[in-house]
Amino acid sequence: MASVTTIPKSPYWIARMRVWIAAPESQSGGFWRLTMRSTKLSHKTTSKRAAKAMADEMERAGRELRSTVPDEHWYASRLDAMLRLANVANPRKKTTWAKAAEGWIAAKTCKPSSVAKYQTDIAHFARWLGSRSSHNLRDVTADDISAFYKDMLEKGYSQNTSILVTRTVCAVLRRATLLRQIESNPAELLTLSRTEDGSKRRSFTPEEIKTILAAVADDEEWTLACLFGLFYGMRLGDACNRRYEEVQGGVLRFVPQKKSRRGRVIAVPLVGALAKLPEGTGPITPRLHAMTVSVASGQFARILIKAGIVRLRHGAKGKGRGVVDATFHSWRHTTNSLLVDAGVDQRVRQLICDHDSTKVSNQYTHASVETMAKALNKLTQHAR
C-alpha cells in the first residue's frame, strides 16, 4: 500500500509507492521499485487521509498498467477517479444524449412550434437509443446515426421527414462538440442527400393559374392572397398577413415570417392589380389574417378542387410527413419557374422569391417544355 509524506522543498503531499519498471532482459520481465511522486495536493489545504487516497489510486493505476492494455475508457475512468479525489471539476464529465439535447433546446431562440418539433425529433432518437440515451454521449457513433436514419426509412417515414429528424440529431452533436462534451462530431461522417428532387410540389401551369384566379374572382381577399403568391412567391402565412402600413410609394416592405428572427426586410415593387393597393392601416386581407395557417390551407385546398386541379400525394406511405404536390406553396415554384421562362437573371429571381442561395432557388425551378425546346433549338444550328 502507498503512503504519503512531506518534504521541505515541496508544498504538496508526496506519495511513496511501488511502480513497475519494465526490464525485458530479466526473467520476470521487470521489477518493482519504490519511488516518490507528487500528488499535486497541497498539504496545507488537503488532509493526510485525502492525500493517502490519491496515492493509493496512483499506485493502483500503475499496477493495472502491468497487466491491462489501456484504452480510452480505462484512461477516462482513472482520470475521473483522480480528479474526484483532487476535488477538481472534470472537463470530461459524462454527458448523456438527454442532457446534451436539453442544453441545445435551451440555447435555441425560435418559435414554440419549432421547439415542439425539435423536442419530438430528440425524443424519437432517444427512443431509438433505448437505455443508451442515458449512457455517455461519447458512445454514439456515426454508424448509430446512419442506422437511425435507415431505420426511419424502413418504418415508412418519408425521406424528407427522415432527413429533417436526423439533421436535428446532428445539430445537437455539433453543439456538444463545440462545448467539448465530445471530442469529435460523429455526424460529420454522414451525408444526407435526397435521392431525387427534394421538392415534391410542382408549379401551376398558365392554364391552372387562370382557373384558380377565376375560382376566387368573387372573393377579393383570396384574389389578393393568390396574387401575392403568384407575383412574389409568398408563403401562405406571409400572403395572409400583409398590412397597408407596409405599402409606401408603390413598394411593399415586409419581414417574412421565416426570417422574423433576423429581421430581414424584403422590398418588392407592387405590380398588376396589387399596384392599386392604397396606403392605409390594418391587414390587407383581414378575414384571412384572422385565420390560422392550417385553416387557410384547408380553404385553399377547396379552391383548388373548385378549379378542377387534382392534388397527388407523395412521400410517406406509413408514418411521417407526406407531401401534396399542389398547395399554396406551389406559388413559390410557379413564380420562380415563370421567371426562368421569361429569362430573368438568377440573382433577381432570388431577390423576388427571397431565396438565400442558388441551390434553394434551383429546387423551386421547373422549366417548361417550351423553354427547354428554345434552348435545345439553339444547338440544332451546329448540326446543319
Which key features would you list for this structure?
384 residues; 47% helix; three-stranded antiparallel beta sheet; 15 helices; 11% strand; hpI Integrase, Chain A; single chain; 3 domains
**CATH topology description of the largest domain:** hpI Integrase, Chain A
Name the overall outline. Answer: elongated
Which class do the helix and strand fractions yield? mainly alpha
* Unreliable parts: none
Q: Which CATH architecture of the largest domain would you pick? A: Orthogonal Bundle
Number of domains: 3
Series of secondary-structure elements, N-terminal to C-terminal:
EEEHHHHHHHHHEEEHHEEHHHH
State the fourth-level CATH superfamily of the largest domain: Intergrase catalytic core
Strand adjacency order, main sheet = 1-2-3
Mean pLDDT: 81
Separate helix tally: 15
Distance between the termini: 96 Å
Tell me the β content: 5-15%
Major β-sheet profile: 3 strands, antiparallel
Overall CATH class of the largest domain: Mainly Alpha
Question: What can you tell me about this protein's structure?
Answer:
This protein has 384 residues and is mainly alpha-helical. It has three domains: 83 residues, no CATH class; 93 residues, Tyrosine recombinase, N-terminal domain (DNA polymerase, domain 1); 168 residues, Intergrase catalytic core (hpI Integrase, Chain A, Orthogonal Bundle). Helices cover 47% and strands 11% of the residues. The chain is built from 15 helices and eight strands. Strand 7 and strand 8 form a beta hairpin. The protein is elongated, with a radius of gyration of 33 Å. The model has no long low-confidence stretch (mean pLDDT 81).
